[in-house]
Design a protein that fits this description.
- InterPro entries: DNA_brk_join_enz, Integrase-like_cat_sf, Integrase_catalytic, Integrase_recombinase_N, Integrase_SAM-like_N.
- The protein is mostly helical.
- The chain is built from six helices and no strands.
- The protein is about 60% helix and about 0% strand.
Length: about 100
């Protein structure tokens, strides 16, 4: 427990590194040493923070589309209006 606290507080490691260290300790004590440490199972696992997606305002979308012309503008409007990915739009055919 002290090691995990040291990792988080002193070393300031990322959440994934902290979780990897905890998994390594659980494996080492459980499988290699065949020692059951119930308190180690109860240690809280840090969760990575979820980033909010960057969303354009309607004015920003209009400005971006204003720079495009012809087929490029049409394609961008199609992608934006439907939420398609670029690869999905490129795979479209007239029969679709």
């Amino acid at each position: 427990e002290a090691f995990l606290s040291w990792l988080a507080n002193e070393r300031k490691v990322s959440v994934s590194t902290h979780r990897q260290a905890l998994a390594a300790l659980l494996f080492f004590y459980g499988k290699v040493l065949c020692t059951d440490l119930p308190w180690l199972q109860e240690i809280g696992r840090p969760r990575p923070s979820r980033r909010l997606p960057v969303v354009l305002t309607p004015d920003e979308v209009v400005r971006i589309l204003g720079f495009l012309e012809g087929e490029h503008r049409l394609f961008a409007q199609l992608l934006y209006g439907t939420g398609m990915r670029i690869s999905e739009g490129l795979q479209l055919r007239v029969k679709d």
